[in-house]
Structure of Transducin beta-like protein 2:
Amino acid sequence: MDPVLPIAVLSVLIGAVIAVAFFGSYFRKRSSEGQSISKPELQEDRKKQPSKPSQHKKSHAKPHSSDKDQNKKHHPLDVNTLKGHGDSVDGLCFSPDGRSLATACADGVVRVFKLDDASSKSFKFLKISLPVGGPPVAVSFSDDASSLVVASQNLSGASLYMYGGVEKPKTPNESNQQSKVPLPEIKWEHHKIHEKLGILTLFGTTASYGTADGSGIIASCSEGTDIILWHGKTGKNLGHVDTNQLKNNMAAISPNGRFIAAAAFTADVKVWEIVYSKDGSVKEVSKAMQLKGHKSAVTWLCFTPDSEQIITASKDGSIRIWNINVRYHMDEDPKTLKVFPIPLSGSHYDRLSLSPDGKILSATLGSTLQWLCVETGKVLDTADKAHEDFITCIAWAPQAIPIGDKKVLVLATASVDKKVKLWAAPSLHAS
Ligand SMILES: *[C@@H]1O[C@H](CO)[C@@H](O)[C@H](O)[C@H]1NC(C)=O
Ligand SMILES: *[C@@H]1O[C@H](CO)[C@@H](O)[C@H](O)[C@H]1NC(C)=O
């Protein structure tokens, strides 16, 4: 009987080892499956970034390249990066409450990110794949965060689609099942809106001036010389103007919905008034004034929050601030209030955006981002390589949004580098 015991013990031991090995690897496999399932499919994950040394083959040894990433990432105002875009991001727009950010990407998708906390490690987003035709190039919320107007274009022209029911993105575990998420619906669409030409910008606002009825209105600016005003809810064409200035650069609507102003190839800036009838609808869009003073093309412009001033950036190397609160009906001309030299070696800016308090002007040239004090024209901060490629679009959130337990004014920038970045406002008291 005695020799049997060691054999039995041995076989039990061997069996236990095999079982541990088998179940161990089984459970490891299970837990990694569990992990990948619990991660929303398209959610970005910042932690992943440094573990992709293959993208940095040409830089130095591994420890160095991750140091480099760290340095690049940490401009002090750089709050976050929204990843997940498959191609160049060409347009972006915040909802009126600042909590949703829509982006137009050359991968054919419009994404609506939910910014409950701008410093989150990842963001939920709603994905809208456009009908076949061409990639989205610009987006503009209309009326509220649930309506979004999207411009897309291809060689035969530009289209506008208005999506209703752009609801809050689903919770992480629901957004896994992409097929079950109902798509927002197209409420109206128009094709070849600028004939064969593409769209440069789409800017919208809520019409609140005078007798205006509070409708969302949107201006599409073509790469030719025309600009069309649209009614957000119905898609009705409300009016049409022509800059007659060879080629448009962009067109903006004043926050109160009273004016449209265009930056174009020649130096003068044309301003139109949107005239409302007593019933609150748009009666016409008529010529109002011209801002004369720049010596070269105006690349971009923006209105101040009170709709009484316009800030322009020109290839003549200057920024001008204009008072347009004049009795232009009585031939009173808009006045230049301030002229600042553009403090960059390139001497011009591609894009401008003014903070919602009207105090900070952000401006870009190529991949450089700069913040200026509107009062003094002084540089508050500069991010030399804010992106790895050309910055295509910038916009301030209309309201301060949460970063951790604080609320902060945030600027969003989009780039050909497939990224959207969020930046905190610099202090006005920086040297
Ligand atoms: C361009 O887009 C329009 C409308 O979306 C579509 O009907 C047309 O077929 C597209 N043309 C090309 C050349 O892709
Ligand atoms: C995940 O889904 C379940 C059921 O579908 C739901 O009860 C739960 O609240 C969801 N979790 C989160 C974090 O939303």
About this structure: Residues 133-134, 154-156, 159, 191 surround 2-acetamido-2-deoxy-beta-D-glucopyranose (ligand 1) (CB under 6 Å).
